[in-house]
Write a structure and sequence with these properties.
32% of the residues lie in helices and 27% in strands. The protein has helices at 32-42, 59-78, 92-95, 99-105, 131-141, 186-206, 282-291, 320-334, 349-358, 369-374, 395-420, 428-434, 448-458, and strands at 46-48, 55-57, 82-83, 89-91, 110-115, 118-126, 150-159, 173-183, 213-216, 228-235, 241-251, 261-263, 269-271, 273-280, 308-312, 339-341, 363-367, 376-381, 387-391, 422-424, 439-443, 461-466, 474-475, 482-483, 486-490. The two termini are 30 Å apart.
């Protein structure tokens, strides 16, 4: 279980009957969308901003993103990737150099036409993605085979003018990382694109505790300008898919218009081969929808701002309870566990329990006069609500083991749910009947027309062509033409 410093994030100090801290969360079965909004707001993760479609990420929510960044950044650097930063503004002429790319992003682009009180000679696009501005720079940086591979990532914000927005899942401005690499050969670029997808798969499953299906996008769903797009797809608790990471084999689609070329050892000039790959703050949304329940947020310990919260009970009756609580906090913190000691005197213990449940803290430790007398503490798991008494002796090992168990339990619980709701279908009638709330494994002939028909009539899309496990021959569910394997269809966020 990764451990790091205790964040400075403070707990929500709201209290009192009728406050947000005491509201019940809308049940998932009643209204999944309202449930999601309630979890985000009552866990104090984010709120809507004065700018339409944009969000304010609050300290507790941003700490989750920081923990994601830390884990991912270490994995990138282990693959030889370094960080840099490129401009937010892109000259419109650069965006237009790759026709499919500009066509794919045109509906979402925000454009600056005036600045400094004057009309600009050339409009500036607010970064929807950075291929064009970065590859203009790369054309100067890459001259020789000795300059390759060039492996760079940036952590940045991007703007895509969304019509329908939802906190974390789809906002006009969001945070992400985008990696952009340059290689001497097609095979090297292809291998690196798949390497980064595997980085995302490992992160999703071992850190987020979210099981994912790796595969390739269909041609109609691939990234604008890519030769191939690889992805990981996760199932949310309403059975919808959430794309949780993509890696694109760009081939030479950008190196040619942007003149990213190099001299080989034999003094011949070649266009380079490129990849790009990224994940965003929508992963926070994935975390919420994969694990949380009708009490509120549920967090895997690896990404919890506080892995343990300590709530003293009856501390106002003397200093002994608080002294013991501080001692336990220091003991756990010294072992790298992120701990919050809730010393607020404006709330009763029950209200604190309720609040920390909604904020998803994996383990709650309660300590009061009776616990002191028995030389023990009461420990409650957020994932199972299991309560047990633990003696102070060996408490650190017991809590560490419990955090590991919670991390594994959340992954297995999500995997069991996904597998139970992934159904094979053999004809279109069964497809339409079983689509809601499920991933459907169905044969597809590869025809864009069949794919479009399904999307138009059901709103389901091909989430991915899985790398493994679906290669048996069959017949397309639309036109009965031969298929060499099943693909995953689902409705998606």
């Amino acid at each position: 279980m990764p451990k790091s410093e205790t964040p400075s994030t403070q707990g929500n100090s709201k209290a009192g009957k009728g406050s947000d801290a005491m509201k019940a969360v809308t049940p998932r079965a009643t209204d999944f969308s309202a449930w999601y909004q309630d979890v985000v707001e009552q866990a104090d993760l984010a709120e809507h901003s004065p700018v339409r479609g944009c969000m304010v990420i609050k300290p507790y929510g941003y700490t989750i993103w920081e923990l994601m960044q830390k884990e991912l950044d270490a994995r990138f650097k282990a693959k030889g990737v370094v960080n840099a930063y490129f401009p937010l503004f892109i000259p419109e002429s650069l965006l237009k150099r790759e026709a499919k790319h500009v066509e794919g992003f045109a509906p979402e682009v925000a454009v600056v036409t005036h600045a400094g009180g004057e009309k600009l000679e050339e409009p500036l696009v607010v970064r929807p993605t950075s291929e064009t501005i970065i590859y203009e720079v790369y054309s100067k940086w890459v001259q020789s085979y000795r300059d390759l591979p060039l492996l760079i990532n940036q952590w940045a914000n991007v703007v895509r003018w969304e019509k329908r927005t939802r906190l974390f899942l789809r906002t006009t401005e969001f945070l992400w990382q985008e990696g952009h690499t340059v290689h001497a050969t097609e095979d090297e670029a292809e291998a690196f694109a798949k390497t980064m997808l595997e980085v995302y798969r490992d992160f999703a499953e071992t850190v987020m505790a979210v099981p994912v299906i790796p595969g390739q996008k269909s041609d109609s769903e691939r990234f604008a300008g890519a030769v191939r797009t690889y992805c990981i797809e996760a199932m949310m608790q309403d059975g919808k898919a959430l794309q949780s990471g993509t890696s694109h084999m760009l081939g030479q689609n950008f190196s040619k218009p942007f003149n990213v070329k190099f001299l080989d050892a034999d003094k011949t000039e070649h266009y380079a081969w490129q990849t790009s790959w990224g994940v965003s703050t929508r992963l926070v949304g994935a975390l919420i929808m994969a694990h949380s329940d009708d009490k509120g947020l549920v967090l895997p310990p690896n990404l919890a701002p506080f892995q343990v919260v300590i709530v003293p009970i009856g501390a106002e009756k003397g200093d002994e309870v608080m002294a013991k609580a501080e001692e336990i906090m220091e003991l756990l913190t010294s072992e790298g566990i992120r701990v919050k000691l809730d010393t607020r005197d404006s709330m009763r213990p029950g209200a604190k329990f309720f609040e920390w449940e909604k904020k998803g803290v994996p383990v709650r430790i309660e300590i009061g006069p009776k616990d002191l007398a028995a030389n023990q503490v009461t420990v409650v798991r957020r994932d199972t609500a299991e309560k047990q008494a633990l003696t102070e002796e060996g408490l650190v090992d017991a809590i560490t083991d419990m955090l590991d168990q919670i991390q594994l339990n959340l992954l297995e619980r999500a995997r069991t749910f996904r597998d139970a709701n992934t159904l094979p279908v053999e004809d279109y009638d069964a497809f339409k009947e079983k689509l809601e709330g499920h991933f459907l494994l169905a044969h597809w002939c590869g025809s864009a027309e069949c794919e479009a028909k399904i999307k138009d009539e059901t709103k389901a899309t091909i989430r991915c062509i899985p790398f493994e496990g679906t290669s048996e021959e069959g017949k397309c569910i639309i036109d009965a033409k031969p298929s060499v394997g099943c693909v995953i269809f689902a409705k998606a966020y």
